[in-house]
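The passage that follows is intended for readers who have already worked through the single-chain material. We present the inputs for a multi-component assembly, then the predicted structure in tokenized form, and finally a short commentary. You are encouraged to pause after the input and sketch how you expect the pieces to fit together before reading on.
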Amino acid sequence: MEDEQSFSDICGGRLALQRRYYSPSCREFCLSCPRLSLRSLTAVTCTVWLAAYGLFTLCENSMILSAAIFITLLGLLGYLHFVKIDQETLLIIDSLGIQMTSSYASGKESTTFIEMGKVKDVVINEAIYMQKVIYYLCILLKDPVEPHGISQVVPVFQSAKPRLDCLIEVYRSCQEILAHQKAASASP
Amino acid sequence: MVLKAFFPTCCASADSGLLVGRWVPEQSSAVVLAVVHFPFIPIQVKELLAQVHQAGHVGLAVLGTWCHRRQGAEERLGPFLEGLGAIFSHEPWLQLCRERTSGLWSCKATCQQGPARVKDQVMLVFYDQRQVLLSQLHPPAALPDRQAGDAAASAEGLAAVFDTVARSEALFRSDRFDEGPVRLSHWQSEGVEASILAELAKRASGPVCRLLACLLSLISAASACRVFKLRPLSFIWSKLAVCGQLGHRLEQLELVFSTQKAEKPAQLMRKANVLVSVLLDVALGLALLSWLHGKDRIGQLAEALVPVADHVAEALRHLLQWLMGAPAGLKMNRALDQVLGRFFLYHLHLWISYVHLLSPFIEHILWHVGLSACLGLTVALSTLSDIIALLTFHIYCFYVYGARLYCLKICGLSSLWRLFRGKKWNVLRQRVDSCSYDLDQLFIGTLLFTVLLFLLPTTALYYLVFTLLRLLVVAMQGLIHLLVDLVNSLPLYSLGLRLCRPYRLAGTLPSSQPA
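Having made your guess, compare it with the prediction:
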């Protein structure tokens, strides 16, 4: 079962949340971030080239211009491959684990998988981020030494940064599955 | 917990048969390793499982049945498959089924005992056996006490699944071209994967390692003999950087060529890193050697060395003349200044005469020392650092004289300062006590104190200048040592593995989209 809804992130950009319910014990949430805007790309390129042209008029060395073109290209490739995240996915499978995938604009995908045995809970936390107070969803991991302690807090959807309404949807679904998992593990 | 069945992707197109694998009760998961095809004799299947159990200490069992059929052929196989459940009893008994034409899957798990007859949910997880084995994600198998039976109690969670696959390598050794009693389907059933070069290297590595280990033990025995433990030789040995580097390399080579097999993947990685860094070192050293010996560069270097030493001595002489005058506008004590300046100038003169004495032999020395580059770039760099230390020995001597004078002056000043205030250092009690001095003691003490105090700026200036020079030399040597350490300790093998085969260093599971 697929479902698509549109939300907004903390800066006001548009996000699209796709929910897929594969089965009662397996759900997937896919957040698509806004694409790279042509306006910002043009602005950055123009700034870099104007600066290079200014340096060229000072130094009369044409290597500066070719270097500027080179830097712009490399910078764009690096940005697309290492920085710009297109889509973030959260896949939660009962009694197996939680998987988070980030796919970059160049096509690279990086996944993190957390076993269900290590997951203590999924909560929404508040944080002070520059001059804003934002909400973020995070996964709490169990401490192997202390039974009631938390060893690590793993934030989810870090580059999409959705607002509270989107987070509540994801949170509800995750809690259903976690409750199901806890009920199953309590009764052998 | 939901029952999880881990199924290998290579068996999805295999013919019908029995599922063979391991049941992990803590995770409530069944790890399927291979499919045994019809016809088979149950005794032989059980023998095969016992063999694999002995080889890898992992308890395998027949987990269920696998049925890959056309539509409508269900009626013939149904009761036959259920009869198999009676021969190989296992809790729970899996029944996986796939339609050939439509590709639909169905899984069922039944328990003979227990409250629920048929489990309601079975989760089928596909895993790629080849990737699991290649990524070497399995935890170390060495346990202090190996008991018969499952020794994988320490592997938790999904690591138990990978551990199972890794330990059952004996099961994957036969392919479909082997004439064995039992016909299996697994990731290597189309033909065992191996590389000719890797196999040849493995066969050759045994005798080569033994030979090299013998040679290295001979060398280390020779270097540990009593002659080198005597005072002057051992002192020189400890001061030269080359000897330190050679000793370090010898240790590393002994580690690499030791006939003991590496127990853990971490140890194997370390050995591989050391080997690759030694090879790179030697390659760079040989390149340096060929560059040095071509176009008579050694001769040019030797010719340039003596004028450079002269130039440095000239610069030092200027510096001393400057100190003997009024350096930076400070007013020095004329007598002490002249004494110290003349002393250092004479020392410099001795040093330059010594260098000029050596100048005919420098080319030969350099040529022979340059040959040491064939042992590696690090050895060549250590030699360079030693040469710099030897050539700037006069700066070191100046620093020592200046430091000693300054130290004596400070000691004298502090003790006379205490006398000036009427106190004394109590050596027994390690503290400052008051003391009543005689008048003549006080008089001479105060006199000496003033003398030392007014001579302090001169000595302090000489000390400062020579310490700065020494620091310069030490900084240069430090840079060279840093470079040597970099070449020594950079894990090139791991870096290369990260770039070319990143799955070998994976820390978590590489998963993909669910079907």
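Commentary: Residues 2-36+83-186 of chain A form one domain. The first helix of chain A runs from residue 38 to 59. How closely did your sketch match?
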